[in-house]
Amino acid sequence: MDVCLSGDSSPQQFIVAVSCYDAVIVDCTIPESMDGQTQTESVYPLLSAHINAMGHIIVISESQLPLNINPVRGIFPAAGQTLSEEEIAKQIAGIIEEVKMTDTYPRLSLDLCEKWLKKGDIDNFNKQLSMMQKASMDIHKHPARNKRKVMISYRSIHFHEMENFAREIADTHDVEVFYLPPGSMCGPQEAHTPMRRWMLVGLLDDKLRDMDELWVYETEDYLDSWWTMAELVMLAYINDGQEQAVKLKVFNAQTRVFYETPPEMYRVTMSLKQHQRLARLMANTRPDTMGPESLEPLRMMGTYLQAVPKEARKDYLDQMRSVVLPAFEAFKEQNATDFDNSDTFEMLNRLFSDPDEMLSFVNDEVFQRDFWENISFQISAHAGACRPDGIDIDKFLTTPMDEVTDLKPEDLKKAANSDGRLVLKVKNESRPAHVSYGEIPRHYLWLATVDKNVQGDMIPGLMTIDIYNVWV
């Protein structure tokens, strides 16, 4: 059995290793140096999305993993905890044996891989790699034990009761139970920008897609939180056009029984327009697609278009299109994959043909500074999108910007380092508040591609999210 331990390498060498070796061990321990004064080495710039999809990639780490690194196999601590090298070493042989027994899909030969890449035959290479990825996902989505994978949705204030319920269910039902402990992705008092709120929803979407069922642990306050609403909305988003890809069940915490049919208030339906809006929010906030380096050019285009006389805007866009579309075509040819870019090309062509549509696009909230830089926080006890009969989807989609404040993360840091006091202003309402560092002081995000010019003092390939709890 060939095993590759990823070390000093390049992104292409990482892909070759994934394609050719029986097992690939990736050390994702987060470097300790955070001062930005030294070039901290890290494995993260080398990684591809395959790290979350292929069973023969074994992720090891002494520190917590970034929120969006969710490997099929690995040895790593829970958020806020650590593992020693000795603890990892004790388990690694057993994990390699699991790979040997389970991940039996064929690998590519090293010679053939290098030959394709040398000739620039990216199409053939990607086709074979996609087949490997599908084989791995099929194996791990439907394991031999054939248990249903269940995720429990709950309010964190009821965590201990829910945890007891989860243990009972695991003992009495043929299910594999999963839930997010408070703070592992987002705590109830955490304050984030609108971009980060939607980014976390996108990561939740990834976890839900791996489930067979979502179970609501129903309490009276279940729909008082935007975050629990998000789980139901993303369920509808995933199931759109499908015959319940992920099923919904509701367990009443008071009566201790499941409803025969989920109550109407939890059964979310979305219009095409709402689905498209949510897709737009997801695409512009996911770590692998958000492209922070592209924000300033888009903002500049919006400012310039607004300043150009209406009668001259069409000519300006025609000139831009003559440069942008050929460049996009060249990029597509050089980076050929089995992904269909025709929709992107049609969208670009449409935008450059219509000044009004281009203005609407570049002025979208997802590119605005408030969306990326200002804190958004629910200051009322009840989520504004909650109605007696369920969730107001339109209101849900606008809530992060409706709740935006005049504060930035650095304001929270300043308050947390002093007496903790500040004032939250949301629209015309002000509330005194107290801020402190979270129990888990920070999370990390792996960024698939980051322009070095905007990397700043981040660890290469990683974004740091400092966690602040706000109490109103």
Quick recap of the structure?
This protein is α/β, with parallel strands linked by helices and 472 residues long.
The main sheet orders its strands as: 6-5-7-8-9
| Estimated radius of gyration | 24 Å
**Termini, distance in Å?**
57 Å
The structural class is: alpha/beta
Give the overall form: globular
The share of residues in helices is 40-55%
* Number of DSSP helical runs: 16
Largest sheet: 5 strands, mixed
Low-confidence blocks of residues: 34-39, 334-340, 450-457
The pLDDT mean sits at 85
Q: Give helix and strand order, one letter per element, not per position.
A: EHEEEHHHEHEHEHEEHHHHHHEEHHEEHE
DSSP E strands, number: 14
Strand content: 15-25%
Topology:
Elements lengths: L2 E4 L4 H10 L2 E5 L29 E4 L12 E3 L9 H18 L7 H10 L2 H20 L6 E6 L5 H14 L2 E4 L15 H16 L3 E6 L7 H14 L7 E6 L4 E2 L13 H12 L11 H13 L2 H25 L7 H12 L1 H8 L6 H5 L12 E2 L2 E2 L1 H10 L6 H8 L4 E6 L2 E18 L5 H4 L6 E10 L1
Parallel strand pairs: 1-2, 2-3, 3-4, 5-6, 5-7, 7-8
Antiparallel strand pairs: 8-9, 10-11, 12-13, 13-14
Helix pairs in contact: 6-7, 9-12, 10-11, 11-12
